[in-house]
Amino acid sequence: MSEYTAAVAMSARTGDNMDVKTLRLTIDAEHLETPQALHALDQAAQILRDGGLVALPTETVYGLGANALDPSAVEKIFLAKQRPAWDPIIVHISDESMLQDLVTEVPGTARKLMNSFWPGPLTLLLPRSDAVPDAVTAGRPLVGIRMPAHPVALALIRRAGVPVAAPSANTFSHSSPTTAAHVLDDLEGRIDAILDAGPTRHGVESTVLEPGRNPMLIYRPGAVTAEQILEVAGPVEVFEPADPLVKTPQSPLPSPGVGLRHYAPKAKLVLIEGTLEAMSAKFTEAAEQFPLECIGVMLPEEAQWTIEAAILYRWGSWSDPEQLAHNLYAGLRALDAEGCTVILCPLPEPGGVGAAIRDRLRKAARAS
User: Fold this and answer.
1) Distance, CA of 233 to CA of 223 (rounded, Å)
2) Which of 254-263, 307-316, 320-329 has the highest mean pLDDT?
3) Are 331 and 344 in contact (CB under 8 A)?
4) What residue segments make up the domains of the chain, in order of their start?
């Protein structure tokens, strides 16, 4: 059985028979030299070296990490998340020397981007080496690599001494986790440990870019924007699938984060587009379509209107897309926790980080 075939078989299982004690290791990202922090990092690093699963904070969202060079460990990610094998995952490194075992080539454009944005929330799709298990790339020739900027993630990878494969630490298609509590809501009892370093910074996943094309291709918008990439390395386009996306693709996806079923709350997500000033009537009209539902609203701070009997989540300033991105998944999860069955959410303007927010919300609405 090939590694890819094994991953398909593994991801077909539900994982309901998993029952491990998840170790919660609290760590202060600003004081990593304390005995407590070093002990937590050593525990987590040993779990990774032994083939286990550790949820770790990054500057984007919490990731579910395993030794990227250990096929059995990588397959545990798919089992714990109930993630299908056609969806590739990203490998995280702590320094560029780790690339030697993972890729066969680094294009000049990739070097420019690495110099500008690493460590940081940019994933580069590069030609994989034979050392990378098929399960990581869904059998495709490119592997997504990034160097996270979070000090805890970097310290853990260094101490483990292995590259770490890490998709978001949530059950497949659910809203991504930006706190340790979110991770445990989905994965407690399914993973070996979590490093709890508090809320993440950006709140949306990394940008995924293929730098070896001309123009370069963004498969997933993220915290590094198309405008920033253009300024550093030249022309860039955003991926548009040739065929409509389906919930269960018949072949592996070209990149992490492009699947139809991603980022969704448990509630039905209804998106509202337009200027903030014109949204009041649109929200009222949308709410009237669900008279028997418990309605939640992702409400910008500037909004001067509310919906009667709705549960409100104060999302952040409409003029600050970075703040909206930071609070996005936390808000969707908070409204889920309140028992909302429908969530009404405005779509921010495109451009900059707004493109990433729109990408996540549109996929979440299709999946919910």
Assistant:
1) 16
2) 320-329
3) no
4) 3-238, 268-367
Q: What angle do CA 349, 351, 353 make, to 5 degrees?
A: 90
Average pLDDT score over residue span 323-348: 97
Q: What is the 3-state secondary structure (H, E, C) of 283-341?
A: HHHHHHCCCCCCEEEEEECCCCCCCCCCEEEEEECCCCHHHHHHHHHHHHHHHHHCCCC
The domain 3-238: what is its CATH number? 3.90.870.10
Nearest to 94 by CA among 147, 42, 47: 147
pLDDT for position 19: 75
Q: Note the pTM of the prediction, 2 decimals.
A: 0.91
Residue identified by tokens 């590694």 is: 3
Distance CA 287, CA 302 (A): 20
Q: Token match 């709140």: residue?
A: 203
Nearest to 90 by CA among 22, 169, 151, 161: 169
Mean pLDDT of the chain: 91
Q: Read off the tokens for 28.
A: 């202060």
Structure tokens at 85: 């094998």
Q: Are 275 and 318 in contact (CB under 8 A)?
A: no
Q: Give the integer Cα–Cα distance in Å for 99 and 326.
A: 30
3-state class of 262 per DSSP? coil
**Domain 268-367 homologous superfamily, CATH:** Threonylcarbamoyl-AMP synthase, C-terminal domain (3.40.50.11030)
The model's confidence at residue 10, banded by pLDDT at 50, 70 and 90, is very low
Q: How far apart are the first and last CA of the chain?
A: 35
Which residues have a Cβ under 8 Å from the Cβ of 200 and sit 6 or more positions away? 57, 58, 59, 60, 61, 62, 150, 178, 179
Report the alpha-carbon angle 242-245-255, nearest 5: 80
